Amino acid sequence: MNTLSDTWSWLTTAAHWSGPDGVWNRLGEHLFLTAVCLLISCLIALPVALVLGHLGKGGALAVNLSNIGRAVPTFAVLVLLLLTPIGSYGQWSTIIALVLFAVPPLLTNAYVGMREVDRDVVRAARGMGMTGRQLLLGVELPLALPLILTGVRIAAVQLVATATLAALAGGGGLGRIITAGFNLASTPQVVAGAILVAAFALLVESLFEAGQRLAPQRGRRTA
């Protein structure tokens, strides 16, 4: 009970929320790192998945390779990158490790979403004279959007949780609160940092779920 009350006391102390080491600043750093990694991951994974899903060729191999990547611990990748020349370029080692971690769910869900589009609808669109580009952007993509957003949601939540590793590489984010707590032997601060990361992940999850509820309706209207 003392730990819980001390944690609550830490969270409700105004001094812990302001300044360069305060919660708001660390939350901003965490959000920025998550957004950058998610954007890069989407730019890498989604075009590949959409094209392969549209063509129906090579997708299974790409998905299997990306799923193999899930078996590699992100922390291990981060440590290896820190030992290479990349480790001397600021947070790039962290960004690369997190991007590699986020690509598999994006690639898998986008490809599966494209392949699960009703083939009768696709054939009808082709019969209407649609080009491959029109078919991809006007029919397949809107209908696959809910599953694509599921992949984006999964990747975003995973990134929020895993971005705490940035603190181990000297980066910012909420992970710095946790590592500072360990350095100070302050259990309440460590628990408070973990609670903040969990709350942030739940918030991101809720926002994406709200977006997914709108996606099926929008997809059907567009198609």
Structural summary, described in words:
This is ABC transporter permease. Residues 27-208 form the ABC transmembrane type-1 domain. It is found in: Cell membrane; Membrane. Keywords: Membrane, Transmembrane, Transmembrane helix, Transport. InterPro entries: ABC_transp_perm/SBD, MetI-like, MetI-like_sf. The protein has 223 residues and is mainly alpha-helical. The chain has a single domain (2-222), classed as MetI-like (MetI-like fold, Orthogonal Bundle), CATH 1.10.3720.10. The chain is 78% helix and 0% strand. The chain has nine helices and no strands. α1 crosses α9 (187-222), α2 packs antiparallel against α7 and α4 crosses α5 (92-115). The longest helix has 36 residues, at 187-222. The protein is elongated, with a radius of gyration of 21 Å. The termini are far apart. 37% of the residues are buried. The model has no long low-confidence stretch (mean pLDDT 84).
Number of helices: 9
By CATH reckoning, the class would read: Mainly Alpha
| Low-pLDDT sequence parts | none
**How many structural units, i.e. domains?**
1
Q: Output the structural class.
A: mainly alpha
Strand content: under 5%
Distance between the termini: 56 Å
Mean pLDDT equals: 84
What is the H level of CATH, i.e. the homologous superfamily? MetI-like
